[in-house]
Description:
The protein is an alpha/beta fold. It is built from 20 helices and 14 strands. The relative contact order is 0.20.
Amino acid sequence: xxxxxxxxxxxxxxxxxxxxxxxxxxxxxxxxxxxxxxxxxxxxxxxxxxxxxxxxxxxxxxxxxxxxxxxxxxxxxxxxxxxxxxxxxxxxxxxxxxxxxxxxxxxxxxxxxxxxxxxxxxxxxxxxxxxxxxxxxxxxxxxxxxxxxxxxxxxxxxxxxxxxxxxxxxxxxxxxxxxxxxxxxxxxxxxxxxxxxxxxxxxxxxxxxxxxxxxxxxxxxxxxxxxxxxxxxxxxxxxxxxxxxxxxxxxxxxxxxxxxxxxxxxxxxxxxxxxxxxxxxxxxxxxxxxxxxxxxxxxxxxxxxxxxxxxxxxxxxxxxxxxxxxxxxxxxxxxxxxxxxxxxxxxxxxxxxxxxxxxxxxxxxxxxxxxxxxxxxxxxxxxxxxxxxxxxxxxxxxxxxxxxxxxxxxxxxxxxxxxxxxxxxxxxxxxxxxxxxxxxxxxxxxxxxxxxxxxxxxxxxxxxxxxxxxxxxxxxxxxxxxxxxxxxxxxxxxxxxxxxxxxxxxxxxxxxxxxxxxxxxxxxxxxxxxxxxxxxxxxxxxxxxxxxxxxxxxxxx
Length: 557
């Protein structure tokens, strides 16, 4: 049954129409948001220019062209002749400590780890690597910061403590990487400007190095045959209406199988559905104000539709009991026919699926009422963080940057193959097209890039290439070509302010919990105004004010 509640009615409940007008903050407004000029924000400070962008000129020709908007270049086969990108070892023989998080199993110890040893040989340093399980990263990072110590190289995500930690312990990289200075490190210069901008600055200065990701963001990854069978694999954005799409979902959700997968940490894949209804990305500038997406009528329209789908039984029935691994398992076993995730997950699912069925994307449908469907772009970097270096003498910093530069050697080079796949014959064999195919040792034996993922510290821009999977590359490229042009980025990408950093984790959890509560019936759609009011009261209003100031400052750079 339908929720029976008008979105416009909900937004007007409890004076919400007036409240929405008041929640955005004028870009020129002055207020006591808590930014004092001593934090991580750039307001009122001179801004270090971002590094110049110098694309690598020796790479293989793409089979499918990239776009200036961020569609990735596609490669249907593996390059036959790999280039030597780093002819001299970048290191000086010293010990280099690195601290990273990982989603994979723990690596074998250094003495038993052939990949670890191969990296040391290639880089010319002794690697002291701490691999932290991703689920423990937040607590471990807090402990590390409290200790007053840090490694030479560290993967850093946004944290309430960064205002004190970064300027006190991390190296200002402006003189080394800003503008044309980055030319000394050609593979860091090969990182697109949008990735550096998404990392942003701390107090106007350049501290972080990005790990690039595709800007395409999350989408609805589907079982192609099943979605075609249900008539809901549309050829173009908006060529299918929401009513027809819903009927197809109902057709697929029968006898213990479901059209839509979900997991307990994903809020029912809302980041695929809200933009379809025209919702802005996380933060947007609207009518001279900085506004969070949960405050928009379009976001609420998406939530209402998700509630209707839940009532029709098209979501996995006990979705909130499943983790990401279980969700992927059920998708690959064809118990559910779709999942919302990133291009990285599309690649891993395609490889793990081994051709049992074709994995594709569904394009955004057209909402009722004539709204224009959209898409949310990602930030173009891994997670929300960057790689930072411990303060050190100039010669030491230059050596560490050479090491990170080597680790960012591009697709088409011998070094890229080593850092991403390991040693031939040990960690990978050659597939039909000559591309690397991981061995059991590298997938489950504790030895290889999966277990020692230094690509979370530094990496080349991701290549759209899947070993022996040219058709999947074509599908990924086709999807990106359709959604990137209509994509919306969040206005807060690269902006750093204490007011947002201190509340981001809590407000994100609050939003996801509220979405789950509405969809599962623990809250009513009519309760959404109270959710928004609590968001504002718990720091959302102050965050909007501070981000607005940072946004204005960034436009002047």
